[in-house]
Design brief:
By secondary structure, the protein is mostly beta strands. It is built from 1 helix and 38 strands. Strands 1-7-6-3 form a 4-stranded mixed sheet, with no helix packed on it. It has a 4-stranded mixed sheet with strand order 9-16-15-12, with no helix packed on it. The longest helix is centred in the middle third of the chain and has 4 residues. The protein is rod-shaped and about 235 Å long. The termini are far apart.
Length: 502
C-alpha cells in the first residue's frame, strides 16, 4: 500500500515516482513483467521502464487536473504480470489536498430587512452567510463592509467579522432610509480570496411620531376682492410629514364655508373662493376673515396640525347710497338771512373707504341758485333772502354720490315751505271812493264800502278799518268789513260834502 498526497490544480503531466521496485527472477518470458493500472479512465496513467539490473521503476502521471472539491480521494491498483501469468498487486491511496482556488459565495446575494426606527443599540439585524468550497483556513471566512449608502450610517450599523452578524451600534437618524450596504466575505487562504459583493437593504419602519408641517403661501398679501369669481385662488398650502409611508401621508381640510381646499399633489393644496362673498354681509364688524387649515396624517393613531391665515376682504363699489328718508321737508321764514340752515339730509353707504364716502349736491332746477348744500354734511342752506309772496314752496332733488371709481348715486326729494312774515301793507283797490246818501237818512244807514287787500297770510293779511281820530266829529263810522255807515242824521243844508280818510 502506498499513500500519496497530490495538491489539486497540479499541472497535467506531472509525474510521481512510486517508491517501489518490481523484479522477476525467472528467465526468459517468465521473467518479463507487464503492468496494468486499475481502474481505467481515471485522472492518472502508469508509466514504467526496466532498469539495467532487471528491476522495474514505476511512475504515476497526472492525466487531468485534479479538483478537490469534485473528487478528493482516489484508490488505484497496480497489477504486475509475468509470462507465466504470475501476478502481484500494489494499492495506491491518493489524497487530493486543498489549495485556495475558490472564492467565497454569498447565499443569497441580496438581503432585505425592515427594522423599527427606534431599535435599541446592540440589536441584531440579520446574519449574512457565505460559503467556500475549500477547507480549513482556505474556507474560514471573515465579513466586511465595502461601502455604505449613505456613508453616515457607518456610525449606526456594524458587522461582526467572524460571524457576519449585522447589528445596531448607534441611533439612526429619524425618518431616513432605506439604507444600502455592500459587503464581501474573505477567506484566510494564501493568497486571500474575496467574494463577489452582496447587498443588504435595510428599511426603516417608521413610527408615527411627527405631525404634518403646514406652510402657507398667501397670495396678494392676504387680500381678496368681494364677489371674486368662484375658484379664484387665495393661498397655496404645502404639507410635509417627516414620517414615511402612510404615517407621512397627510390630507388637509379647510374649515370655512366660504373657501374650499383643492388637492394638487400629495403634498400641495390650493385654497380657492368657494362662494360669492359679500363683504357687507360677511364682515359686519371686522374686515379680516380667518381661514383655518387642518392636516391629518394616515398613521395610527393619526396626528394632526392646524394653521390659520387671515384674509382681508377688499371692498368693491357694489352698494348705492341710501337716504334715511325719501322725502325731507323744511320751512324757512321769508326775508331770511343768507346761509340760513333749512334742514339736513343724511345718506349712508355700506361700502368701505372711498366707496362708502358720500358727497351731496342739488340736482339742477330753475331756482337752484337760491339754495346750497354742504358737500360732505348734507346741510341745506338758503343763499338769498326768500320772498313768500314771490314763491311760497320749493320742491327739488338732492343727489348723494359715493367716491368710487364708478360712483353710485341715490336721490331724495326736498320740500321747502317759505313761511310768511308781515312784510306787506294793505292796499285799497282804489285810490278814492265816492259815496252819497240822502239827508235825514236813519242812523247806521250804509253809504258805501271800501275794500283793501294784504299779500301776507293769516293774521298778517287780516285787515281792520278805521277812520282817523281827527275825523271824530264827522257823522260817519266804519265797520270791520269796510262798510261806512251814518252815526247821526245828516242835513244837506247844513253841509253837503264831506271828505275824509280811512
Amino acid at each position: 500500500v502506498l499513500n500519496l498526497d497530490i495538491p489539486e490544480g497540479t499541472p497535467v503531466g506531472t509525474s510521481y515516482e512510486l517508491q517501489t521496485s518490481v523484479s522477476d527472477l525467472d528467465s526468459g518470458s517468465f521473467g518479463e513483467v507487464s503492468f496494468t493500472l486499475e481502474p481505467n479512465g481515471t485522472s492518472f496513467r502508469l508509466e514504467h521502464h526496466k532498469n539495467l539490473d532487471g528491476t522495474y521503476s514505476l511512475s504515476l502521471v497526472l492525466n487531468l487536473t485534479l479538483d478537490r472539491e469534485l473528487w478528493f480521494t482516489y484508490q488505484l491498483f497496480v497489477r504486475a504480470f509475468d509470462g507465466g501469468n504470475s501476478a502481484a498487486k500494489l494499492t495506491i491511496n491518493i489524497n487530493v489536498t486543498d489549495i485556495n482556488d475558490n472564492r467565497p459565495v454569498f447565499q443569497p446575494k441580496e438581503y432585505n430587512v425592515t427594522i423599527d426606527e427606534d431599535i435599541a443599540n446592540g440589536t441584531s439585524i440579520l446574519n449574512v452567510t457565505a460559503t467556500d468550497r475549500d477547507i480549513e483556513e482556505n474556507a474560514r471566512l471573515s465579513y466586511y463592509f465595502t461601502s455604505l449608502e449613505p456613508a453616515s450610517i457607518s456610525n449606526s450599523i456594524g458587522i461582526i467579522e467572524e460571524t457576519g452578524e449585522i447589528y445596531v451600534k448607534g441611533r439612526f437618524q429619524e425618518e431616513t432610509g432605506p439604507f444600502t450596504l455592500y459587503l464581501e466575505a474573505r477567506d484566510h487562504g494564501n493568497p486571500v480570496k474575496k467574494s463577489l459583493q452582496a447587498q443588504v437593504i435595510i428599511n426603516i419602519k417608521d413610527k408615527n411620531d411627527n405631525a404634518p408641517e403646514i406652510k402657507i403661501n398667501v397670495l396678494k398679501e392676504g387680500h381678496v376682492k368681494e364677489h371674486s369669481d368662484i375658484g379664484t385662488p387665495v393661498a397655496y398650502i404645502n404639507v410635509n410629514d417627516a414620517d414615511k409611508g402612510q404615517n407621512g401621508e397627510a390630507t388637509c381640510e379647510c374649515d370655512s364655508e366660504y373657501f374650499e381646499i383643492v388637492n394638487q399633489s400629495p403634498t400641495s393644496y390650493r385654497v380657492d373662493v368657494a362662494v360669492d362673498i359679500d363683504r357687507e354681509l360677511l364682515l359686519k364688524e371686522s374686515p379680516v376673515f380667518s381661514v383655518f387649515i387642518n392636516c391629518t396624517d394616515q398613521g395610527t393613531p393619526a396626528l394632526s396640525s392646524n394653521k390659520s391665515f387671515n384674509l382681508s376682504i377688499d371692498d368693491i363699489n357694489d352698494n348705492d347710497p341710501i337716504f334715511t328718508s325719501q322725502l325731507y321737508s323744511g320751512d324757512i321764514t321769508e326775508n331770511n338771512v343768507n346761509g340760513f340752515v333749512i334742514l339736513r339730509v343724511t345718506a349712508t353707504d355700506r361700502d368701505a373707504g372711498r366707496n362708502g364716502q358720500i358727497k351731496y349736491k342739488i340736482k339742477p332746477f330753475e331756482n337752484v341758485t337760491r339754495f346750497m348744500i354742504e358737500e360732505y354734511t348734507g346741510i341745506l342752506k338758503a343763499t338769498v333772502g326768500l320772498d313768500r309772496e314771490t314763491k311760497s314752496k320749493y320742491q327739488f332733488d338732492i343727489i348723494a354720490s359715493d367716491h368710487g371709481a364708478q360712483p353710485k348715486t341715490a336721490q331724495t326729494r326736498v320740500n321747502v315751505v317759505v313761511k310768511d312774515a308781515n312784510d306787506n301793507a294793505p292796499k285799497f283797490k282804489g285810490d278814492s271812493y265816492a259815496m252819497s246818501v240822502f239827508e235825514n237818512s236813519n242812523i247806521s244807514t250804509s253809504i258805501g264800502q271800501v275794500n283793501a287787500t294784504d299779500a301776507d297770510l293769516g293774521v298778517n293779511s287780516k285787515i281792520s278799518y278805521a277812520i282817523p281820530t281827527r275825523y271824530n266829529n264827522y257823522p260817519f263810522r266804519i265797520l270791520d268789513d269796510g262798510t261806512v255807515v251814518l252815526k247821526r242824521v245828516l242835513d244837506r243844508e247844513e253841509k253837503s260834502r264831506y271828505k275824509f280818510e280811512i
